[in-house]
Design brief:
The chain is of the alpha+beta class. The chain contains 5 helices and 10 strands; from the N terminus they run H-H-E-E-E-H-E-E-H-E-E-E-H-E-E.
Length: 242
């Protein structure tokens, strides 16, 4: 494993908040895109749909199961003639009260888009304000994720940059203290240190999270290795015994 990759992986292994935030961002972005696509389709359907008569072909029930559907679905299969001469047949999930009132060969009203007769439905679309509301919630989910993950993203980038092109020097341990963070129920520690950059100025830094046994290896006054950014010496990474 390369020298630059090892400390980055060590940081990522303990960066719980970074991973939680990243999951929020990915899930929220996927939800926002899906909600937007569904909302655009709903708006287009409401604008273009026309009514027609359809004949019930059959009614059926799809029971809920642990492996499949989370709830019982009441299905109606219906058929209608499209303007292009095709016969369109669809199966749709309806409320139980409507399902109980229908039987084979009954007539009911459906709506479809003339430009795409396969896009038809019995039930009205959700209210037009529901889509924007859901999109707003998913965007909020993304923003929360960014706030949580951004410090971790920046730290990961710093570790990668410094370990690839930073200046290696020696630092003195000034303090070892609890970090107030647990990983897998194990309390983590921080190590504080100071060093002189190549211009002779004193710089301070704090290690990334350390497991208790790692922190126990150090005492105030001990010396260890650090790398720091050439252009921003205050940006440094603790290497320990390396």
């Amino acid at each position: 494993m390369s020298g630059a990759l090892r400390p980055l992986l060590e940081f990522l292994r303990r960066a719980v908040v970074l991973w939680v935030g990243t999951i929020f961002v990915v899930a929220g972005t996927a939800g926002a895109i899906t909600t937007f696509v569904d909302w655009r389709r709903s708006v287009a359907f409401e604008r273009e749909a026309v009514p027609t008569s359809a004949t019930v072909v059959a009614t059926s029930i799809e029971p809920a199961s642990r492996e499949g559907a989370p709830r019982t679905r009441y299905l109606v299969t219906y058929r209608f003639a499209a303007p292009d001469g095709r016969t369109i047949e669809r199966t749709e999930d309806v409320p139980v009260a409507q399902w109980e009132a229908l039987a084979a060969h009954d007539t009911l009203e459906v709506r479809y888009r003339p430009a795409d007769p396969d896009d038809a439905q019995l039930q009205p679309e959700q209210a037009t304000w529901v889509g924007p509301l859901l999109m707003g919630l998913t965007v909020l989910f993304v923003l929360v994720g960014v706030l949580l993950a951004r410090p971790g993203w920046r730290r990961a980038h710093l570790i990668w940059r410094v370990h690839r092109s930073g200046v290696l020097t020696e630092a003195v341990v000034t303090d070892i203290a609890p970090a107030g963070v647990t990983v897998n129920r194990v309390p983590q520690w921080h190590l504080c240190y100071e060093f002189r950059d190549r211009d002779g100025r004193m710089q301070t830094g704090t290690s990334d999270l350390l497991a208790p046994d790692e922190a126990a290896e150090w005492r105030r006054g001990d010396r260890g290795a650090v790398r720091y950014d050439r252009g921003r010496p205050r940006d440094s990474v603790w290497l320990g015994h390396r």
